Amino acid sequence: MKKTTLTIATLICVAAVGRAADVQVKVAPYVRNEERITAFDDYLRTEKHFRAQSRKDLEKNLRDDWILANSFLENAYTPEEKAKVVNLVNRYLAKREVQRIQKKIGISDDVLKSYYLDHISDYRLKPIVSMKIFHFKTLEDADTFFRFAKTHSYEEAVKKAEAMQTKPIDYTHPLNMMQPIFRLSMRNKTDKEYFTPPQFVGKDFAVLYVADIKPREGYVPFEKARKGIGKELWKKTYLRMRRQILDSYQDKK
User: Fold this and answer.
1) Helix (H) or strand (E) run with residue 170 in it
2) What is the pLDDT averaged over residues 140-169?
3) Which of 56, 64, 97, 205 has the least C-beta neighbours within 10 A?
4) Which of 22, 24, 10 is nearest to 74 (CA)?
5) Cα separation of 208 and 129, whole Å?
6) More confident residue, 250 or 118
7) Do 158 and 217 contact (CB within 8 A), yes or no?
8) Rounded CA gap, 131 and 150, in Å?
9) Where are the domains of the chain?
10) Secondary structure class of 136 (helix, strand, coil)
11) Most confidently modeled range among 59-68, 148-157, 202-211
């Protein structure tokens, strides 16, 4: 086993003690795996609606998880924890089996279109949100900037940021396509021209400025909504399908 030093840094511990502590952990050698990176990217896009900046970022997250997981296996993998892991894996695989059969059965276009028309208000185009992101290395700097910015004009805040060696980064997306952490930081779907409190984003702390929110007319076309409708219908029928599969299995026994 290779021994390495792992620095644990989270928003909570940084805010509480100012600096993370170093702990010694044993780590099994990390082996790069392209399939694992691609699978992780697919998971983030489909399940978390998050697009990683690069494959390098994806691999770093995988490696970080590998380090922490191996640390846990070395230091705290008790029979009780093993049972929890087995249960989690079984739960996941059971869900995937139901989803596999659901996809095999399929859903007709008539059903998809009927759902689309019955829930047309859900497919109204979301507003476009324009933000400016100010990145800081420490929570203290981010908080100092936020306290100044919320009582001064945007132009004055930009000058303050430049004096602190940072500049605003443009971020413009439809509301539903924004990173969840950004969307949740907003007051509501209409307010604009305000700064949000500091939050942990990636490796840094960020203060967001909601510059503009532009409403849009119209609806998402059916062809674009089709895949999402299928997933939504599978979710709604998941428990019933699970029961039918299990009943069928019992009948064969």
Assistant:
1) strand 169-174
2) 96
3) 56
4) 24
5) 12
6) 118
7) no
8) 15
9) 2-77, 125-214
10) strand
11) 148-157
CB neighbours of 190 closer than 8 A, spacing ≥ 6? 213
pLDDT mean over 200-213: 91
Hey, is 51 helix, strand or coil?
coil
pLDDT at 178: 84
Tokens 């028309």 belong to residue: 117
Taking alpha carbons only, the member of 208, 191, 187 closest to residue 199 is 208
In tens, the pLDDT along 48-82 reads 767 776 888 889 888 898 888 888 888 888 999 99
Global pTM exceeds 0.70:
no
Instruction: Give start and end residues of each alpha helix (H) in the chain.
Output: 11-17, 34-47, 55-76, 79-105, 109-118, 139-149, 154-163, 180-185, 222-252
Three-state secondary structure call for residue 190: coil
For residues 170 and 162, what is the distance between their CA atoms, to the nearest angstrom? 15
Q: Percentage of the chain surpassing pLDDT 90?
A: 49
Measure the CA–CA gap between 143 and 206, rounded to whole angstroms. Answer: 9
Phi and psi dihedrals of 134, rounded to 5?
A: -110, 115
Per DSSP, 81 falls in state H
Q: Are 128 and 173 in contact (CB under 8 A)?
A: yes
Residue pair 195/150 in contact (Cβ under 8 Å)? The answer is yes
DSSP 122: G
